[in-house]
Write a structure and sequence with these properties.
about 120 residues, mainly alpha, about 55% helix
Amino acid sequence: MGKKPRRARRSFTPEFKAEIVELCRRGDRSVGQVAKDFDLVVETRVRDWVRQAEIDEGDRAGLTSSKREALTALRRENRRRRKAPTPGPSPSGSVSFFELATDRVMGREAQRARPPGC
C-alpha cells in the first residue's frame, strides 16, 4: 500500500471561518464533529479559529487579529530592510564597483582604496 497523496493547502474566507466558529459555539456538536462535517482534516485549525474569535471579542487574552496583522507587516518590513543593501563599504572593508562608479560620476575620484583590477 502506498502513501495517500498530500492534499493541496486550502485557504478559507473570513465568512466561512465565522460560520464554523458559530456552529462550534452553539454547542449541538463538538469541535471535532464540526471539523469532520466540513471535511476539515485538522481539528486544531478549527480550535484555533474559535480561540482567535474569543480573543477578538475580548473574552480571552492575546493578540487580536488586527494587531497580529500589523505585527506580521512590521516583521516583513524588517526582513526586507535587513536584506536590502546598505550604502557604504561592505563589512569586509572592500569597496563595491557601484560605490566607485558613483564616486566617479559625482566628480569625487575615490579617496578609498580600490580593489585590484579597477
